[in-house]
């Protein structure tokens, strides 16, 4: 079986739209999002991948200028501006550059509030912006009418402060939205306490607050965050990290309660990122039989993470594909 490194997996319509965007055209993206409509899970994932893989964001600006009343164009331009603001911050750009990008993104999300108030992506975008060095309620247009304190839950099991009202808005429009909860995990990782806080959020969420079994993958991502923080430079215990009862618990639970019940007809629509992280965790903790089924669901598709970072931390080949192909071949033969 060949190896195709692609975030879109078997979604050929999304792949065609991405190729169109790279040529500076938006018609295929407009048609794709129109067909996707209010299928919120698919709309969220497709628009996220379109924003990440478009190349030059100017194509979205041109589209929005051409069709100012299009909620699809507004959403994609807002996504592009939001990504630009967060990336500028992570690259330590000047504060005024980050602030201008954030303000422009805010403006577009407010436009989408009016163009399509039922769309949860507008709140997901604000959750993403909460990673910037401002008080998170700056991105909440309803902050003044919220509970006090704005950023604290009335739950002794979750004491970390964070942009909970923004996540509540996402869940109100699309309960259990995958990207919304990953953005919350990223908030804790980057702004609210680091990998330990992100892990606590993920474990707290799956301990009884699930409305979408996809979210059982959150702790698996958080385990990789912990690994990078503790063993990213190959520090002691790197190999043993993946062989713990904690890793086995979360990986097997995600497999048994999320992946295993799914019919094979659903496999083409699953996130390649989720499948890759699950396959890696299962292999690493010795659950080869479960991992083989996940590799079958992935087909020829894969993404570099987590294979690339784990390989590098252990001083192995920087070409992650060698290890990936060897493991996949040994489990599927």
TrEMBL record:
Query: This chain belongs to which protein, by name?
Result: Cytoplasmic protein
Look up and give the organism this protein is from. Answer: Streptomyces doebereineriae
